[in-house]
């Protein structure tokens, strides 16, 4: 049956269509372009995509290392959801979650608190061709292992469930990074959120897990980080019934370990610090071979 002009939305003013589409989501707006030419024009308009950009997007981009130049609000959104831009002299990067438009950050090692990082005997900072940042931190040898970073809740999108991920690689001779005393946790406003997680930075050696991770890393992505939308990787170890959290492989070649997750308050909520910690301060076995790019904070998929 031939579609009437009224049914296809061609008699509805574009500004009305844009207002309605702007109340949906970025994914819905993209789907709306297939309805009709009128819907496509409205769905691609700046009026729609400005609603999906963070209110402080312009202020954030003023801190960009390089000028961010886009011909439309939709192009700007897509650019930021495809890849991060460097901010603050290259100390962190910023992007958008494609499905929701929520803000995403990666904090570089120059912002992180790493125990003994200033001593070349224990850590070295060097360039890495695979990193978006000018420097990564490579662990040479330590027994006292502590990594932390923090971000203000006001820098993130309100009313959003976030997760924090350590993004890293391992050298071929990496060792000591799966102690049962190694833990990760998140505090918001000085209060522990959720559980303290026993943490292994060595990938799980179960065949079933390796297969599942391989399938996940090749699936479609939902954010600027080229990582698949997957659940946290954790299961019981054979000894002691301990539930251990493991990393997952990203399609960009790095590993990521979920430190923990947290929820941001609404827009009226007071700003609080979100502290992300990974440490092993009890067993104190020697560790080496960890190459850290940073900590990424993005909506939990």
TrEMBL record:
A Pfam short name: PP2
Protein name: F-box domain-containing protein
Organism: Triticum aestivum (Wheat)
CDD domains the record matches: F-box_AtSKIP3-like
Superkingdom assignment: Eukaryota
């Amino acid at each position: 049956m031939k579609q009437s002009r009224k049914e296809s939305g061609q008699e509805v003013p574009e500004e009305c269509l844009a207002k309605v589409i702007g109340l949906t989501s970025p994914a819905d707006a993209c789907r709306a372009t297939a309805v009709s030419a009128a819907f496509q024009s409205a769905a691609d308009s700046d009026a729609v995509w400005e609603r999906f950009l963070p209110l402080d997007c312009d202020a954030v981009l003023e801190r960009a290392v390089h000028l961010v130049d886009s011909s439309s609000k939709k192009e700007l959104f897509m650019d930021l959801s495809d890849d991060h831009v460097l901010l603050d002299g290259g100390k962190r990067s910023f992007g958008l979650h494609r499905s929701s438009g929520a803000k995403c950050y990666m904090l570089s090692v120059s912002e992180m608190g790493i125990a003994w990082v200033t001593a070349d005997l224990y850590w070295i900072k060097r360039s890495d061709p695979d990193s978006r940042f000018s420097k990564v931190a490579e662990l040479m040898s330590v027994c006292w292992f502590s990594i932390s970073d923090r971000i203000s809740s006001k820098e993130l999108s309100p009313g959003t469930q976030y997760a924090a991920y350590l993004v890293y690689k391992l050298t071929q001779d990496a060792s000591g990074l799966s102690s049962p005393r190694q833990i990760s946790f998140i505090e918001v406003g000085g209060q522990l959120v959720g559980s303290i997680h026993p943490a292994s930075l060595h990938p799980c050696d179960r065949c079933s897990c390796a297969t599942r991770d391989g399938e996940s890393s090749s699936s479609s992505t939902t954010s600027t980080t080229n990582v698949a939308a997957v659940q946290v990787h954790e299961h019981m170890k054979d000894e002691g019934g301990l539930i251990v959290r493991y990393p997952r492989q990203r399609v960009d070649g790095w590993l990521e370990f979920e430190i923990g997750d947290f929820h941001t308050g609404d827009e009226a909520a007071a700003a609080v610090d979100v502290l992300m910690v990974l440490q092993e301060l009890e067993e104190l076995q020697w560790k080496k071979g960890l190459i850290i790019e940073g900590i990424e904070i993005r909506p939990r998929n």
